[in-house]
Design a protein that fits this description.
about 170 residues; alpha/beta; Collagenase (Catalytic Domain); four-stranded mixed beta sheet; two-stranded antiparallel sheet; 6 strands; globular
Length: about 170
């Protein structure tokens, strides 16, 4: 089974980084890939993520998480031979980048009535799934498949959604 390397940019509490690292690794491990992967995670505030959202998506507002995939996956499956995509130095498959607004995560945790830890883990798993080819462009099967995988990963981490969570 492949392992995931997580690189951080930006400031954040070490406990939060540890949780985010564990969530990213849990999402990756849920696919049992035969290759190692790597992901870059930037921890930001609302102002910084708003800049990214404006510059990359032309949406001038803060958001909770942004995902920038580097390779073509569909529901966790590489859509081309991954061997040619491995970094020649590290031997890992670069999956992409994510930006998480810790400020937005704390606000949403309060809004949804659960812990900031659960929200950070959820946003990380959500973003990892985007990097691995999941999407929620509609309210149909794509979104349902993504939500099912998110909850499975969070459940393994002991952070499954409570019935009263709105997220």
């Amino acid at each position: 089974m492949g392992k995931l390397r997580v690189e951080f940019h930006g400031d954040g509490p070490e406990r939060t980084k540890l949780l985010i690292r564990l969530a990213a690794k849990a999402a990756f491990a849920s696919f049992d890939y035969p290759f190692d992967g790597e992901v870059c995670i930037e921890l930001a505030n609302d102002e910084k993520i708003r800049e990214y959202n404006r510059d990359h998506r032309k949406i001038d507002r803060a958001t909770d998480v942004l995902s920038f995939p580097l390779n073509d996956f569909y529901r966790g499956e590489p859509q081309e031979a991954y061997s040619g995509l491995l970094d020649p130095v590290s031997g890992r498959l670069p999956l992409g980048d994510m930006v998480i607004s810790l400020e937005r995560a704390r606000a949403q945790a309060k809004e949804y009535g659960h812990s900031a830890a659960r929200e950070c883990a959820y946003l990380t798993v959500h973003s990892m799934l985007h990097l691995l080819g999941y999407d929620h462009v509609d309210e149909g099967q794509e979104k349902a498949a993504m939500r099912e995988r998110e909850e499975a990963v969070l459940s393994v981490m002991g952070l499954s959604r409570r019935v009263d969570d709105q997220n």
